[in-house]
Amino acid sequence: MTTPTQASYTALDAWIDQHFDEEVRFLQALVRVPTDTPPGNNAPHAERTAELLKDFGFDAEKHAVPAADVQAYGMESITNLIVRRPYGQGGKTIALNAHGDVVPPGEGWTHDPYGAEIVDGKMYGRATAVSKSDFASFTFAVRALEAVAQPTRGAVELHFTYDEEFGGELGPGWLLQKGLTKPDLMIAAGFSYEVVTAHNGCLQMEVTVHGKMAHAAVPHTGVDALQGAVHILNALYAQNDGYKKVTSKIEGIQHPYLNVGRIEGGTNTNVVPGKVAFKLDRRMIPEENPVEVEATIRRVIEQAAAERAGISVNIKRLLLANAMTPLAGNQPLVDAIQKHALAVTGEPVPAVGTPLYTDVRLYVERGIPGVIYGAGPRTVLESHAKRADERLDLEDLRRATKVIARALSDLLAG
């Protein structure tokens, strides 16, 4: 493969345009197989993806995570896919990772969340934007690359995994830990108008507050676990005022934040609740120390519990996802994506951080430089990701596919 020229970029673009209807149909087929997590029964989607990829001549290795491990993790099934496309001796191996698992649709949809309906140039459905869209953009970028540029060195790997919502340890983390892959560079699913080089970390914990159940007619004979939980929650929420003063130096990342996303407890309206449990999510900026963050959260909870007679707590860590910080070797990725995103979209694409946390950190922690880029709008809010009526502008899918194909041609040419 010779050094790419403007003519070769134009040829890549043309191939993608010629096959774009096929790419859209591929994405529709992926969206129509639910991957709600929880419950996390994701092996059927991997099977369907492998079947569709075979039509393109892509052989997907199926790496099933042992059922006992998956169930202990809180999910039902995970089969991760690797498609290896070797081109010749020398050069880099570049991995493209997207996740198929998604949160359940929830309420409020005006379109079938699994219908992949297209209205006014937008496809509606759960995971259209995050991140089944990049199953499509990455697959068709590689197809275009092979049809037009015909690389003769290096390799590309497609990593389609199914554990982003629970933290990634049984997705990319499992593939890397088992030694099934070790790329030189990687690009993970993202949006089309920024290249992300850093992201927040995330600590998730489950707190169980114990009191003493009693009849509501004689509440003094019990200890109200809900009142105890409210006191603890107030102490936790008060931390957010201080977090606003802890700012990151990375553009796109502001300050830490604590959210309580789930709470349950009690047995009936006429019973003083004896047990209440809640789950919290603490976003950590890259400059923070995760060990210190967790120790502080535990201290706040325990001190608040101690202020309420008869209340005790159990604290369980559910997830500790480290922040992603840039590795020096990611610059060729950033340069290639910025160069071609400008050419394709007509506007500069900044290199920024994001308050989200992603699977990229699992590659970076193993010394593999990575960035986040793919098909999507300018903001998560615009995409409706994790909300009703998630959607993808199909022109963003077309643009991202072109940018990835062009960038791969540069990176593989050295």
Describe this structure in words.
Helix 2 packs antiparallel against helix 5, helix 7 packs across helix 8 and helix 9 packs across helix 12. The chain has 414 residues and is an alpha/beta fold. The protein contains twelve helices and 17 strands. Strand 4 and strand 5 form a beta hairpin. Strands 1-2-6-3-7-16 form a six-stranded mixed beta sheet. A four-stranded antiparallel beta sheet has the order 11-13-9-14, with helices on one face.
Question: What are the SSEs and their pairings?
Answer:
Layout: H1 6-18, H2 20-31, H3 43-54, E1 60-64, H4 67-73, E2 79-88, E3 93-99, E4 117-119, E5 122-124, H5 132-149, E6 154-161, H6 172-177, E7 185-188, E8 195-199, E9 201-210, E10 214-215, H7 225-243, E11 257-265, E12 271-272, E13 275-284, H8 290-306, E14 312-321, H9 331-345, E15 351-354, H10 360-364, E16 370-372, H11 380-383, E17 391-393, H12 394-413
Parallel strand pairs: 3-6, 3-7, 7-16, 8-15
Antiparallel strand pairs: 1-2, 2-6, 4-5, 5-17, 9-13, 9-14, 10-12, 11-13
Helix pairs in contact: 1-5, 1-12, 2-5, 5-12, 7-8, 9-12
Keywords:
4-stranded antiparallel β-sheet, 414 residues, 12 helices, single chain
Order of helices and strands: HHHEHEEEEHEHEEEEHEEEHEHEHEHEH
Give start-end ranges of low-pLDDT stretches: none
Oligomer: single chain
In percent, how much strand structure appears in the residues?
A: 15-25%
Computed over alpha carbons, the radius of gyration is: 23 Å
Q: How many extended strands?
A: 17
How many strands, what sense, and barrel or not for the largest sheet? 6 strands, mixed
Instruction: Please tally the helical runs, counting DSSP H or I stretches of 4 or more residues.
Output: 12
Structural classification: alpha/beta
Helical amount = 25-40%
The shape, in one word, is elongated
Strand order of the largest sheet: 1-2-6-3-7-16
Mean pLDDT: 96
Q: Tell me the span between the first and last alpha carbons.
A: 10 Å
